[in-house]
Design a protein that fits this description.
The complex is a heterodimer of chains A (326) and B (323). With 326 residues, chain A is mainly α. Chain A has 14 helices and 2 strands. In chain A, strands 1-2 form a two-stranded antiparallel sheet. Chain A is globular. The two termini of chain B are 24 Å apart. Helix content of chain B is 75%, strand content 0%. Chain B contains 15 helices and no strands. With 323 residues, chain B is mostly helical. Classes of the chains: A mainly alpha (326), B mainly alpha (323). The interface between A and B is large, with 57 and 59 residues.
Chain lengths: 326, 323
């Protein structure tokens, strides 16, 4: 096979997600009363980017064959924290942003330490740490409120050169600064290898523990970037349990739509980003078609159910029934 | 092991260390509680705790069955809510509706469980994912259902009687129900072929399949039972609060998983006893009760709760060191 066919086979999930996104976005904008304008794109981007950050976070953990059910809660916690810290002079704001990101990194590192060095199952461990993070968030913001440096917030949620949504630029920057170096580093490869076959990776001397730990910690950081952005959009902090849960759930949906294998070792954060943007666009289709917003949770649930059921098509390729049981 | 272990009574030697730890923690919690207030050891308080625990106990029973298979059921929150809301709603349709309210609520839970079961057993979708998805769909259905018009949401007399009445003087009905369900579960798990199959699949599904077990059907039934028991828990809760509400299932997901896992059931499946789950349920309920008696705000409760679960799991829930 030629090189480009290998590349194509590897990127199939990502490209499929990009395709879904483009089709959905065309349907969305062509039925939107305002049409394809910079404003519509900006609003859609701002909504989608939040989920894209959380989905990227989920991807890092899913690649190691784990799952992080606390991403939504880290997202909430950092939102509440940012509504206290990201205020004041440019200097204070910068320090605040750094502090918020550090807290996200710390949350992720705690998850990683418990799962990897404590040898607990990721599902149970992250549900429990998620409760802790939610509790801390609620402690910080028992009632919705707070504020944020509005200059920074408007700059990051506005448009660059009047056309390109700034949030997409930030998303691209985060991909270039965090995802690309990570996925090409030894640690990133170790994370992939650990997800693909932990035993084989261990036998080959791959630093699986450090790789997985880095994946969990960076997941916390990415969720914190998402939390910061939520603060920039809403200007407030709020510890809403349902919203945290929804983000966790949607991050998994985005990851699945983005072609990342839940069994680990396969997929890319780019796919998850496209998956997240596509998922948001599909959810918003209801509005352009003038449905009652009441139907939105059901609609999103059905999309999720269909998306995860698509994985079942792999069953048709099973030659030996024993392959049913992983 | 040697000398000391041999001199201990047989039942202690045979017991799972995790179950013993869980019971030890219960005693410790009661002791700490009694230091805080004398009334912690009064029979009224303990009976009240047992009654509150029985709702979690019913839900955790289904969760345990699924976890024994090495799967997990994350659709508990809206299975509970759907059971409660549908049972209450059925009561609006005349006397027949009132009579069939409880079975109808449970049936809705079983339907959710069957969807989960089909996804996990036949479509081979990871249980964590498909149950999250059905949870979202169930939520969507309930939102659509309650949003369009306001359905009846108050519990029927029978539901209230099951949750709060007394058939035997001094013993709340809810506790009796939990005891019956528990006894049936112990019987099924230890005395029937189905129980053996559940443990077998939890240990190694491939081996169970090659031994001639229809593993897919067993998994499917387990999920259906889990959904049904969650819904039944919701019915009882609605009876207890005399009202069904949308988010009533949310506080039961983490506790039900925690109760099962703290009771020594392996999250990887194949290992665990119902006695452990009972211990886990009582432990969680006592912890919640003590935190609320101390008037701990919701935030503090969540934090302590998560920390305690992680700490206890680190004590005895760790996976073996790899390789």
């Amino acid at each position: 096979m030629k090189d480009w066919r290998y590349w194509l086979a590897e990127q199939r999930g990502t490209l499929l997600a990009l395709g879904i996104l483009i089709v959905m976005f065309i349907i969305y904008t062509s039925n939107h009363p305002a049409g394809f304008t910079a404003n519509v794109v900006q609003t859609a981007a701002n909504k989608g980017v939040l989920l894209a950050f959380v989905a990227m976070a989920q991807t890092l953990v899913v690649i190691t064959a784990g799952i992080d059910l606390s991403v939504g809660m880290i997202f909430l916690l950092t939102n509440c924290l940012a509504s206290w810290l990201v205020v004041g002079t440019p200097m204070q704001t910068t320090l605040g942003v750094i502090a918020v990101l550090a807290v996200g990194l710390l949350c992720g590192a705690i998850n990683g330490a418990i799962v990897i060095y404590g040898r607990l199952q990721p599902i149970v461990a992250t549900i429990a740490t998620g409760a802790v993070y939610y509790g801390i968030g609620l402690l910080l913001r028992p009632f919705p409120g707070g504020s944020v440096n509005e200059d920074l917030a408007d700059a990051l949620t506005g448009r660059v050169f009047g056309v390109v949504p700034a949030s997409l630029v930030v998303l691209l920057a985060v991909v270039l600064v965090i995802w690309v170096p990570f996925s090409r580093s030894v640690l990133g490869r170790a994370a992939y290898a650990a997800g693909s076959s932990e035993t084989a990776a261990y036998m080959s001397g791959v630093p699986i523990r450090r790789g997985k730990f880095a994946a969990y910690a960076l997941a916390g950081l990415l969720a914190a970037i998402g939390g910061l952005f939520l603060t920039f959009f809403t200007y407030t902090g709020e510890a809403a349990y349902a919203s945290g849960n929804a983000y966790t759930l949607f991050s998994i949906a985005a990851v699945v739509l983005g072609g990342v294998s839940l069994f680990g070792g396969k997929g890319s954060a780019l796919g998850a980003i496209f998956g997240a943007l596509a998922f948001r666009t599909i959810g918003d289709l209801l509005f352009v078609f003038d449905f009652d917003p009441l139907w939105q949770p059901l609609f999103q649930g059905v999309i999720l159910l269909v998306a995860v059921s698509l994985g079942a098509f792999a069953l048709f390729r099973v030659r030996n029934r024993l392959e049913w049981f992983l | 092991m040697g000398g000391i272990a041999n001199r201990m009574p047989k039942f202690i030697r045979r017991a799972d260390p995790a179950v013993l730890t869980a019971f030890a923690c219960i005693v410790l919690l009661l002791f700490l509680g009694s230091l805080y207030s004398r009334s912690f050891l009064s029979p009224e308080y303990l009976l009240q705790q047992l009654k509150v625990a029985s709702f979690l106990g019913v839900i955790a029973t289904g969760m345990m069955l699924v976890i024994l298979l090495g799967q997990i059921d994350l659709s508990v929150p809206w299975s509970v809510a759907a059971g409660a809301m549908m049972a209450s709603a059925a009561a609006a349709y005349g006397p027949a509706g009132v009579a069939l309210a409880i079975p109808f609520g449970i049936l809705c839970g079983i339907m959710i469980g069957i969807v989960n079961g089909i996804g996990v057993a036949y479509l081979r979708i990871p249980s964590m994912i498909i149950t999250l998805a059905t949870n979202a769909v169930a939520q969507g259905l309930m939102v659509v259902y309650t949003g369009g018009f306001s359905p009846q949401d108050s519990a029927t007399g029978a539901m209230r009687y099951l949750a709060t009445g007394f058939t035997i003087p001094g013993v709340p009905n809810a506790v009796i129900i939990w005891a019956l369900i528990g006894a049936a579960t112990v019987f099924v798990l230890t005395r029937t072929g189905f129980g053996r199959m559940v443990y077998g699949i939890g240990n190694r599904e491939r081996a169970a399949y090659l031994s001639g077990v229809d593993t897919r059907r067993v998994v499917m039934i387990a999920f259906a039972v889990s959904g049904g028991l969650s819904a039944f828990g919701g019915v009882l809760l609605a009876g207890y609060a005399s009202k069904a509400a949308q988010s009533m299932g949310d506080p039961y997901l983490l506790p039900s998983i925690a109760a099962v896992v703290l009771g020594g059931t392996s999250i990887l499946g194949g290992r665990g006893s119902y006695l452990g789950t009972v211990a886990g349920v009582i432990l969680i309920t006592l912890l919640q009760s003590i935190l609320s008696v101390m008037q701990m705000p919701e935030a503090g409760r969540q934090i302590i709760y998560g920390v305690v679960i992680v700490a206890m799991l680190l004590l005895y829930g760790r996976a073996p060191a790899s390789r």
